[in-house]
Amino acid sequence: MASPLVIAVRTRQAVVQLAEQSPARIRRALVTQGTRGLGWRGAPLPADVRSRLRAGGAVLAWVGAVQSLDINMLSVISEGGPLLVVVESAPSSAALAAWLATVSMQRSPTLRLARGPLPRCLHPEFRGDLQVQLSGSALPVAQVAACSRCALRHACAGATSGTAVLPRAQPVSNQFDWVQTGPALVAPLGAQAVWPQGVPAAERMRHLWLLEGDRLRRFHCAAAAWSDADLAHTTDELGQAWLDVSSKARLDDFAADLAPLRQLHPAEDNGDGSWRPGVWRRDHGDPFGAEETRLLALIGGLRGLIVDIGAGPIRYLQTLSDLIVRGHVRYLAVEPDLPALERTAAALPGALLTQGIGEQLPVRTGQADHVLMLRSFNHLHDVPAAFAEATRVARPGASLLVVDNVAFGLLRTPSQLARAHAVPVSETPFEHYRNANADAALAAIEHTGQWTVTEVRAVVPGAANQWLVRAQKR
Ligand SMILES: C[S@@+](CC[C@H](N)C(=O)[O-])C[C@H]1O[C@@H](n2cnc3c(N)ncnc32)[C@H](O)[C@@H]1O
Q1: Cα-Cα-Cα-Cα dihedral of 414, 415, 420, 425, to 10°?
Q2: What is the dihedral of CA 151, 156, 162, 168, to 10 degrees?
């Protein structure tokens, strides 16, 4: 595919001022900006301005929504040299079609049409003559309703890519609550057959018991967003039930705030009308701490250029800082959240921090020795695009480390729940698009066909809710 024509979009006033320069200076300005095209929005440029800019080598581009690109003016301002009309948005397909029909009837030989950030998916019939890329102009994609439903929102260059709306996943929570109901009971018969009266059969999967000494505490999950199947998978199959032992509204240190639990047995229908409730007890160990120690060891062993996708509030600062100071690594963090990068910038001198997304990495092909995706997999809009990018930037022999978490349930008292609910929703937005286990990352890696998987650690009962996949680029 030919490279798109890059157009620097400036205010109309800035374009008029540039036209006052000599042709040589205009040319130099274009070269410095890495563009051949000069675009403006608003009223047409006067003839003398157009001719001076053209003398400086500029391809002129009139940029705007179809309703602001006056068809009667097109033939006028395309006189005396080429004019590119960049359509930014259309009120509807019908309006664009009508506009195109009229333009094509009175089209002059010097007039060329192109799409701006108008996504191809919206108007596939309008191919335009040229591929353009607008620089110096924020994509007004928010104006296009379909974009808010499209996972390609950030990646779509409008004119040059995007063939269909890629359905955008709904954000999901990665945590649900089991809330204690009623007082603790003395456990009869070794915790067998404790089933309080009045719990409907359909609700049975939504209860569990915690055995503490000779006492049983009953917990109930009322979270409607979590189906019985979700609960059974997360709780019984993956063992992800944790006891909140903190007095915090927001948990920020899982190793300290959560006590591990082990399932004695899942809830079971005895087949004779009776029911055995699921029972759990406190467990020993520090699964979160063990995971972190292992990750630190892996990261501490890296050498060369690290590209950290979704670096966020960067963890492992001490380890990374040591590696950078000793010259063992160059570290590039790619993260969409600018404030998060700014907060850690001071703590990690020598690191390269850049605002960006995994789906479009600002890294040259084959440069990275290591690609990290630490707890950002579940945040990606477009998993295949991100893995295509990770694959592109990795050199042969490079390593890939993907780590993330499955959902988990928290056993809480009503007062702990009330404290958590007191935090405004705006401070705890759902940021995940999935609560994948290792198999999802494995599938994404294998889909690229360019990595050899060297280690997979999926979440299992007794472990933290964190999984890991490592691979080496072939
Ligand atoms: C849970 S944080 C992980 C931060 C850090 N890597 C860690 O291990 O703690 C997830 C990060 O992914 C970032 N993120 C969200 N969407 C992303 C995308 N499309 N590409 C890359 N990172 C993204 C979020 O802004 C957030 O900082």
Answers
A1: 70
A2: 10
Substitution candidate for ligand 1 out of 337, 371, 379 with most atoms within 8 A of CB: 379
Ligand 1 centroid – CA 174 distance (Å)? 14
Which tens digits make up the pLDDT trace of 223-246?
888 998 999 999 999 999 999 999
Q: What is the pTM of this model?
A: 0.71
Domains of the chain: 5-149 (no CATH), 175-282 (no CATH), 288-408+426-473 (3.40.50.150)
Residue 80 token pair: 């005396």
**Integer Cα distance of 201 and 224 in angstroms:** 17
Mutation probe of ligand 1 site: the residue of 251, 376, 378 with most atoms within 8 A of C-beta:
376
Q: Which phi-psi region, left, alpha or beta, contains residue 366 (left: φ > 0; alpha: ψ -120 to 50)?
A: left
Cβ contact 167:149 at 8 Å: yes
**Long-range contact pairs involving 416-420 (C-beta distance under 8 Å, separation at least 24):** 416/244, 416/246, 416/247, 417/177, 417/179, 419/247, 419/248, 419/249, 420/177, 420/249, 420/250
Range of weakest confidence among 185-194, 251-260, 424-433: 185-194
344 sits in which H/E element: helix 338-345
CB-neighbour burial class of residue 405 (10 A; exposed 0-12, middle 13-18, buried 19+) = buried
3-state secondary structure (DSSP) of residue 187: coil
Cβ–Cβ under 8 Å, residues 140 and 156: no
HSE on the CB side for 419, CA within 13 Å?
12
CA-to-CA dists, residue 246 to 120, 257, 262, 410, angstroms: 51, 5, 19, 11
State the distance from the centre of ligand 1 to the C-alpha of 312, rounded, in angstroms.
5
Does ligand 1 have an atom closer than 6 angstroms to the CB of 380?
A: yes
How does DSSP assign 7-33, residue by residue? EEE--HHHHHHHTTS-HHHHHHHHHHT
Instruction: Give CA–CA dist 32/293, Å, rounded.
Output: 48
What was the pLDDT predicted at 382? Answer: 86
- Model confidence pLDDT, tens digit, residues 69-78: 888 888 888 8
Q: In what order do the strands lie in the sheet with 59-64?
A: 111-115, 83-87, 59-64, 37-40, 5-9, 132-135
Q: Rounded to the nearest whole angstrom, what is the distance from the C-alpha of residue 116 to the centroid of ligand 1?
A: 29
Q: Record the tokens describing residue 213, joined without a space.
A: 């000494």
Secondary element (H or E) of residue 215: strand 215-220
Q: Which residues contact 41 (CB under 8 A, 6 or more apart)?
A: 9, 11, 12, 62, 63, 64, 68
Pairwise CA distance, residues 434 & 55, whole Å: 54
pLDDT tens digits, one per residue of 361-375 = 989 999 999 999 999
